[in-house]
Amino acid sequence: MTEIRKATYSDLQTIQTFDIFAGDRAKDIEQRECFVEVVQERAVGYVVFNHSFYLNPFVQFLCVAPPWRRQGIANWLLAY
């Protein structure tokens, strides 16, 4: 079973195992701009967005763990 929810600090360690982008996901989590796709209680992908683009949501980062790629995770995160 999968779900999409706001990321928490408990997701940070897992996110860091597959995160390919520079930056501070802890800061994104703190600002409540990071959302994760969770499969069996483990984050398998994340999206970070902010409202810096003319106050509209802007996708800043999107990353999916390698074993979960090409299975629709990124599409689900964008649709969310």
UniProtKB/TrEMBL annotation:
Q: Which Pfam families match?
A: Acetyltransf_1 (PF00583)
Domain of life, per UniProt, equals: Bacteria
Domain (N-acetyltransferase) ranges = 5-79
Q: Please identify the protein, giving its name as recorded.
A: GNAT family N-acetyltransferase
